[in-house]
Amino acid sequence: xxxxxxxxxxxxxxxxxxxxxxxxxxxxxxxxxxxxxxxxxxxxxxxxxxxxxxxxxxxxxxxxxxxxxxxxxxxxxxxxxxxxxxxxxxxxxx
Length: 94
Known about the structure:
Layout: H1 8-19, H2 23-41, E1 45-48, E2 52-59, E3 62-65, E4 72-75, E5 78-85, H3 87-93
């Protein structure tokens, strides 16, 4: 399987081709959408109907190791986002 990252630029170009809107407008739409997701997820959870939900999780400080050098170091506590796909989205993918 070939792993391919889908970047924001890919998203903008894809939206440009599908809608016929200019690249600048597509870039603004994507940036605004991402900003809405970020602001909404700060309240703990954000649901996108028939797509899935984004939930804010808090990770604790832990011990990590560099796999190349086996050097241990502390990974600080941080916030992260977990995406859970909706049943309808999973059904359409399968």
